[in-house]
Amino acid sequence: MKRSWREHAGTTFDLHKRGAAASRGMVASNHPLASSAGVEMLALGGNAFDAAVATAFALSVVEPMMVGPFGAGFVNIHHGATGECTVIDNYSTAPRGATPGMFEPVSDHWPDYMETVGGKNKIGHLAVGVPGNLKAWCEISGRYGRLGLGTLVQPAIRYARRGFPASRYLVDCIRDSRDDIARFAATAAVFLPAGAPPSPGGLVVMEELAASLELIAARGAEALYGGPLGEAAAAEMAARGGLITQHDLREYEIHDRAPVRGTYRGYEIVSTPPTSSGGTHIVQMLNLLEGFDIAALGFGTAAYVHLLSEVLKIAYADRFEFLADPAFVRMPIAGLTAKEYARVRRGEIDRAGPSAHRAGDPAAFGGESGNTTHLTVADDQGNVVAMTQTLNELFGAKVTVPGTGLLLNNTMALFDPHPGKANSAAPGKRMLSSMSPTVVLKDGKPFMALGTPGGMRIFPSVLQAIVNVIDFGMTLQEAVEAPRVWTQGQALEVEQGIAEDTRRQLRGMGHEVEVVSRVAGGMNGVQFEDRRGLIHGAACWRADGTPAGISGGPAKFGLVGATYAL
């Protein structure tokens, strides 16, 4: 009988939530109403692509601080019919009026390196990048869905018009951003009714957003990229000092990209390529870890956490050195993900204590926010959709386009405000991301898929969940809820769930240990169980995440008119 990971662990933990299992489809997202919207599409005869798009639109209403049509992200798709994987890059771009010196930096040194005078790269109209979310969602529906966009948007319209109960998580986010929200009347009208946040459980109504979603249902992406919503956004920009024009919106393009691939202990890892750094470094770090007996070290032991911290530092050093927008920089992705490269770098790891590993300049990573969302959907045809989408920071730029209910992103904060840097702003340039929606295959078939919000802590968190399942034998629910750690070369952040004895031993090894409430955000995912034909869903305690599935099916043929003897 296989031994439980708990028998050899240095840290154990109790589950806050429970997973779900179903046979026909599974939706895991960071809000129960959004997951419900996805399941509704599956019940209507839709596939995973329909369910994912419906879930994303619903999240734009019920998790508005994290995502919306005017946001950006990455989508990792596994096609059940062909076994092929595609990554859609719908990250935002700098408007054509952007310049490397458009913001005035506060400092040339960390921790204020990414800050600008007046916070203009984070709050207000100048902070807004050209969005990609709506174009990607409509494209996925048109290419792969069955039900049509008009059907997929209906749950979101319903939630916006009829209202939904505010969770404590949403209310806390509003309170954290209250002063900035209050600066913009159209945003404050929704989130600060009567000048204060709603109470937990209070109804949030978004009538203007409902009308915009109805327009999208009727006209698709054109409503924003050349239509009336785009005209309203461009007019607001022109009036308030923003840069985005109707031309920027009409010219925006999503990109289909070949995923980054690697192998780990017999599993195939399929993840995001640049302009996200996430997939490259997940594969790189798994290559490094493959040379060690991770299971023997034990989950949450000082030996395991130390090794993990050393691997993270190597990855971040390479991230700073090599990764950027592929349209602007040539990158050695094949080398970074090569097994031989990992063998060479593995020799630099000191098992006794922390090493420097060319940790790089932490300022390069200072702007990426952890306030994002992720959803994972699978159906019984083997289709899998893993989507990480964002407005960047809580409520994005805090700006709502008057009359539309559309919250705008603040992705311009991801650019280095100092001219002449690899990540300085330039017209049409995409910012480097850490998003890591990842699909794991076994013998060519989907085994699991997962992702998380969390800014620059995303790919280390996804890595840890993969290791939790493959090496430690955790269930998916255990894997996403397990305590996490993070470092890029400075303090070693450990969640409160990491055992005190492990923290003490790490300090004795020379680590500067910092206990934090959480590393990254609400992870969720799905896992396929071949033996019983079930799809498991999981979502963690760090957000309002909820897995929801559908089983059952139509009546058995041949029973109509049958009689039964008693």
Number of strands: 21
Strand portion, in percent? 15-25%
Widest sheet: strand ordering:
1-20-19-15-14-9-8
The major β-sheet equals: 7 strands, antiparallel
* Stretches with pLDDT under 50, minimum 5 residues: 359-367
- The assigned structural class equals alpha+beta
Gyration radius over CA? 23 Å
Mean pLDDT: 94
Structure annotation, total helices: 19
Percent range for helical residues? 25-40%
Distance between the termini: 46 Å
What can be said about this structure in brief?
With 566 residues, this protein is an alpha+beta fold. Helix content is 32%, strand content 17%.
Could you walk me through the main structural features you see in this protein, from its secondary elements to its overall organization?
The protein is of the alpha+beta class and 566 residues long. 32% of the residues lie in helices and 17% in strands. It has 19 helices and 21 strands. The strands form five sheets. It has a seven-stranded antiparallel β-sheet. A seven-stranded antiparallel β-sheet has the order 7-4-3-11-10-2-21, covered by helices on one side. It has a three-stranded mixed β-sheet with strand order 16-17-18. It is globular, with a radius of gyration of 23 Å.
